[in-house]
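RETRY 2/3 - previous attempt timed out on the joint model. Re-submitting the same 834-residue input unchanged.
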Amino acid sequence: MLLLACGEPFLPGAIDPTTTLDGPIDGLSATQVATHARGDAEFARRFAAIDGLGPTFVATSCESCHVGDGKGHPLFDITRFGRYAEGLFDRMPAHGGPQLQNRAILGYAAEQLPAGATAIARFTAPAVTGLGYLEALDDATILANADPTDANGDGISGRPSMVDSTDLVIDVISVSDLAAGAEQTRHRPTGGQYVGRFGKKARTINLLHQTVFAYSEDMGITSEHVPQDLYSPHVGSQGGDGVADPEVSAAVVDAVVFYLRTLRPPPRRNAGDAAVQEGEALFTQIGCSACHIPTLRAGRSDIPQISGALFSPYTDLLLHDMGSELDDGYTEGDAAPSEWRTAPLWGIGLVERAQGGGAHYLHDGRATSLPDAIRFHGGEGASSRAAFTALDAAKQARLLAFLRSL
Amino acid sequence: MDATRRHTTRHSTRRTFRRVFLTLAATLTATLAIGTRADPLHAQADSARADTSRARRDTLGVQGSIYNRPFIAGAGRTSIGGYAEGNTNYFVEDGISDGFSMELRRFNIFLYSAVGPRLRFISELEFEHGTEEIALETALIDFQLDPAFVLRAGILLPPIGAFNQNHDSPRWDFVDRPLVSTRIIPSTLSEVGFGAYGRVALRAGGSFTYDAYLTNGLGDGVILNGEGRTLLAAGKRQEQFAEDNNGVPAFSARVALQRRGLGEVGLSHYRATYNSFRVDGVEVDARRALSISAFDLSTSLGPVSLRGEAALVRLDMPPALSELFGHRQWGAHVDAMTPVWRPRLFGLRDAVVSVGLRTEYVDYNVGTFTSTGRPIRDDVLAVVPGVTYRPVPGTVFKVNYRRHWTRDLLGNPAARLGGYQVGMATYF
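RETRY 2/3 succeeded.
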């Protein structure tokens, strides 16, 4: 009776798909759906100490950081640190760097920030929807948008994050790359360097790379790609969790990678509203779309729905100087401390549904509203920020309505 | 064959059956009487029967649950019995369903023996989901010096709340066990240990009962388990029957008052050190304690019987794991049942149909996020209306509608689950 009074059906109906991020790409085959579901279960799996969690870790599952496949909560922010020594950035591996594993299994010491760390950054986990499309971008597509010397004089000088093959640690050639075609158009080295595309500083080159590092660095779970546990410098090596390695098989890693590849792009809401459309025009007009490129085309993929698809991530996957406002002093690879990969904006309108009702935007969740996030844009984003500030309140509202529709 | 002949033939058949039955009964009675006189074991059985009756008389309410089982009635020296329960499930969560399924939840075998004057042994072997999980749930011996002081040792049920000691499914009117009793209090919790219990009659009327035990306690899995949350049930381990993981016994105790017409009210407490802080005698970690404080009530308001329990868990948590794993959690349930029909059908004179409602809530992680100042969630609210039919007191058929609202750790919009369960449970 109470349910009827509340207008709720006895058997709960489906959630409006435009209000959630998770779910597979439409049109997958039955086998693909089954593999996606297997990967989904592994993505949600919470590792126990007896499963090999740790000995040091940040979270107990992939899903902890990416709730509902959305952007993370500050509880699971990761901390990375380092220091500058003789003009070079030292990731302090002897002190557990570059990532702090701030939690540990019982009887083991969690890591503490070392005294000498002078560059410290917090990273909030990103949403993971639509990643398969970003992975399927050809290197050439990313490079085509680069303008490192600002040759066109628009004040935007995006450049790709180039990852040395010696930094990869693992063999990142994934089966999907090979399956996509005999002539590999992405994730292949040029002059010993790969085009990075995932991570805040674009330091990972594909989803296999990203996944095995997350298993290792975030959960302390060993895989066939990274078969050794992390250890705390307070304890020393070879004092791990006592669980036989690898703690997850290649099949598990592959299922999770497939799951990530086949998550649907974030759905749009109210895209046809006049206010939203006007906001989208303003978005382009004030220069946001120079970095947050609305539409890209995927390269060849072994997943037909992705192969050659036009999609709308609102990113160029390039590094941009965001000025002192977002300069944490910390860096990775050849990115400067103030350089950040353009965050995809798709799904930004659903952030609050994954962050417990609050909103935590930007790389470390420091902005609690969209206007806040815009205000933190300096460097190459400064002119767009100024343009946004100059808009009257009604126009700002329309631009924000557009962002919330993504 | 005409009606008269059919009638005559039925009467003749009944007479024949009656004669055969009476002859067999007389023979059996005579044999038993002779055997009783001739065999000292039968004399012991008589004594045991008397002891069984005493066991049931000397224990009350929750404390007496393990003896107040129908199979013990009429026991000789040793008797066997048990209960079985099974049910169907059909659930939908936010529009997604895995369809219809059936499960045989439990098949439990009791073995009781009055091993001598004042000495009783009782055990319970549990088969969950067929043979998926087989566990020795109880195996204990009671030595009754006085109804007010009974020594108990073996694999026993620590007295936390009411449900842990009083969990036989035929006694309950809902298909699922209460969330607070399984997810906060880790029922069914069996531990190896010893202690004492007793009953004291009060001058003002009614009784006072107590239970107090030392046991091996829960293990490391209370946190850092496969659920990713503090869950005392994940700290149960079979190895605890052989050796404590840290050499510090757990203490559990319950006191209760019973009064005819008012029911029973109990307070209980359990305290244990859960982590393996000691290896080969060397302390390698800080001692980490947990406690459960529980309140239970069983009473009636007019025709409505009410029973429920509430429990609060507190844990010593490594600071680095706080917020991710709850250092405090609590839950409660109330079951309200009332009989609505006593159908005298099929010769079942005690049959009763009842309706009821269970309301329950558990919060796995009480606290506030330091990073955002928002409350930590990870909670479940559930309501379960149901109908039961008890053809005989030890057998129950149940129909439930179950509705859950589950919020994750961060407090995102609740997942909604609804569904139907039809189940049965019977003593045998």
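The radius of gyration of chain A is 21 Å. Closing ticket.
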